[in-house]
Design goal:
The chain is 46% helix and 13% strand. The chain has 300 residues and is an alpha/beta fold.
């Protein structure tokens, strides 16, 4: 047995030099971690803010389609329109990216649907639709990211092509600062069936963020932006802290090339397909939805 004595660790008292070595090693480890992961968001930085895309970033699926489902339930349009929109939403769920033709059809149909309706009516319905179809589709992981900015004392806005009134409902329910969204014309509180300008999409989002930052006195190099879509690369490129959330293939490739941070909160087969572990368990988006675009009041 004596021959095996070398296997038994010897008990030795720590010398002053060994204590110093241990403390130095621990401090170096802590310093390395802190340098790799600096505190973000920075608490008390009132020149910083965060901008979140909505569809597939904050919420599963497209807000436009969820809103349309609520309008169909309230008999704003016929069943044949629902079937077409249901296919568009199913495609969006499977592909995980926006199809410009589908979105344009949705907007055109929605404008004709809401034409002649009062702004106040759609705003009230939007509150109900949020509770019915949207609240349970908020990604917990992205919600936590937004809350981190709020807890740091920073302002947080949604930036989306969805109707601005619907975006404002979602922002208010989540406790965010506000929302930038697509604006549609209304006269005397009634929708005309026309947009003011164009949908807030792609480069238009970047321009909206730039304008808001200037008006609010923000330093974009200290701000963060979050999106799932390569269409939002212009917005993400504006800020000092871009994040790819549940990214499509093009955004993932772009983000990896530029060393942007990535987060993926999808579950099951979809998460496996993109090669990133899921970070939150959330139910699948229900299919069979329609679209509607509602808007903003123009005062004349």
């Amino acid at each position: 047995m004596a021959a095996l004595g070398w296997l038994t660790p010897r008990r030795r008292s720590a010398t002053a030099r060994s204590v110093l070595a241990g403390e130095a090693s621990a401090e170096a480890a802590r310093k390395d971690v802190s340098e790799q992961e600096p505190q973000f968001p920075v608490h008390g930085d009132d020149l910083a803010a965060a901008f979140f895309d909505l569809d597939n970033t904050v919420m599963q699926g497209a807000a436009l389609f969820h809103f349309g489902r609520g309008l169909y339930k309230r008999k704003f349009f016929e069943t044949r329109e629902l079937a077409r929109f249901a296919w568009q939403q199913a495609w969006f769920r499977l592909a995980g990216v926006e199809d410009p033709e589908h979105m344009q059809e949705a907007r055109d149909s929605a404008l004709s649907i809401v034409k002649g309706h009062r702004v106040a009516e759609l705003q009230s319905i939007g509150e109900e639709i949020y509770d019915e179809y949207m609240a349970e589709r908020i990604w917990p992981g992205t919600r936590a990211l937004a809350q981190a900015h709020l807890d740091a004392g920073q302002r947080v806005w949604l930036v989306t092509a969805a109707p601005v009134e619907i975006a404002q409902v979602i922002a208010r329910r989540l406790g965010l600062t506000g929302a930038l969204g697509t604006v549609a014309e209304s006269i005397d509180g009634i929708y005309t069936g026309k947009l003011v300008g164009e949908p807030l999409h792609g480069p238009a989002k970047a321009e909206a963020v730039r304008a808001l930052a200037a008006a609010e006195g923000l330093d974009l190099s200290r701000c963060a932006a979050y999106s799932d879509s390569h269409n939002d690369i212009p917005m993400l490129s504006l800020v000092g802290h871009p994040y790819a959330i549940n990214p499509d293939a093009k955004l993932r490739k772009h983000a990896r090339r530029l060393d942007w941070r990535l987060r993926d909160y999808r579950t099951g087969r979809k998460a496996a397909k993109v090669g990133i572990p899921a970070a939150a368990g959330v139910g699948a988006v229900a299919g069979g939805t329609a679209a509607a675009i509602a808007l903003h009041r123009r005062r004349r």
